[in-house]
Amino acid sequence: MESDHPASASSPDYPATELYIGGLRAAIHGLAGLPATSAVTAVHLLHPRLQTAEWMSAIAHEILAAAASPTICVSIEQRNHGTRLVDGARNGTWRDGNSSHAVDLLASYVGAVRDLQGVIDFLPAYLGRAVERHVVAGVSLGGHAAWIAVTQDPRIKAAAVVIGCADYCRLMRHRAEKSRIGGFEIGACAAFPPELLDAARRVDPAAIGVKEVARRLQGKKILCLSGAADKLVPYECNRAFLMELKYEQGIELVDKVYDGVGHECTPEMVRELAKWVRDVVENGRGRTACGQL
């Protein structure tokens, strides 16, 4: 299991409204009680590996409790998880016996982003109201996908990444070493074939390169929350990329590492995330058109 619940899983003050968006079941928290015609900020929540959309309900509660403007939280299940489960073995790592872990993981990132883009396309029509701002927040697997989403889709103006990684190849090297994968070489072995490297170069932030990522992130805001004691997604796998990105102009990047925290989403992290989302929304008010910051 990638991460324990960050807080109580229930959100009694913000019950979910269920919508089916292009065939995807989406839980919309915070919709009940909003003025019928008000435009909203949509915070798209992406859950960890081996979890479900319901796992994010506690985070939705914290975000909505902190919000000062009309905000909703939208959560869908990742591919091959929960009600969309096809083959549970494919969600495993090399240590779990899944020899195709590297390609399965990147395919999961990309699949989540494509699903998210479809939700963004049609969410306003299903809601019958304008969505003036899109923010993505993901934990672990969801955090990896959030990095790709914010660099691939100009409609997403901010991303919060909790225990996620922007450098897929470095993360795979780390896991291969810990899993003792013999003869491992990025783009030159069965565990990481050249075709997978080609795919990574199209979507992974670190593989795309800092300069190009910085160009795509102009005017956007990024929050990264990591555990200093995280062994599954170590901060060291992110450090080089983030250090370079911090020197680029036009990007607001908050990079916070918690001492003594492993691969978990703690209540303190959730509070930090909720405050950051509120500030992103409020700092952008008065300067927004539909769908833009």
Structure report:
By secondary structure, this protein is α/β, with parallel strands linked by helices. It has a single domain (16-283), classed as Alpha/Beta hydrolase fold, catalytic domain (Rossmann fold). Helix content is 38%, strand content 19%. The protein has 9 helices and 8 strands. It has helices at 57-66, 101-127, 141-152, 168-179, 194-203, 205-208, 210-216, 236-246, 267-284, and strands at 16-21, 24-29, 40-46, 71-76, 131-139, 156-162, 221-227, 252-258. An 8-stranded mixed sheet has the order 1-2-4-3-5-6-7-8, with helices on both faces. Strand 7, helix 8 and strand 8 (252-258) form a beta-alpha-beta unit. It starts with 15 loop residues before the first strand and ends in a 9-residue tail after the last helix. Residues 286-293 have low confidence and may be disordered.
Coarse shape? globular
Q: Tell me the strand percentage band.
A: 15-25%
Number of domains: 1
Main sheet specs? 8 strands, mixed
CATH architecture tag: 3-Layer(aba) Sandwich
Q: What is the CATH homology-level superfamily?
A: Alpha/Beta hydrolase fold, catalytic domain
CA-based gyration radius: 18 Å
Amino- and carboxy-terminal Cα gap: 36 Å
Order of helices and strands: EEEHEHEHEHHHHEHEH
Low-confidence stretches: 286-293
Number of helices: 9
How would you write the strand order of the largest sheet? 1-2-4-3-5-6-7-8
Quickly name the level 1 CATH class.
Answer: Alpha Beta
Task: Quote the CATH topology.
Answer: Rossmann fold
Helix content: 25-40%
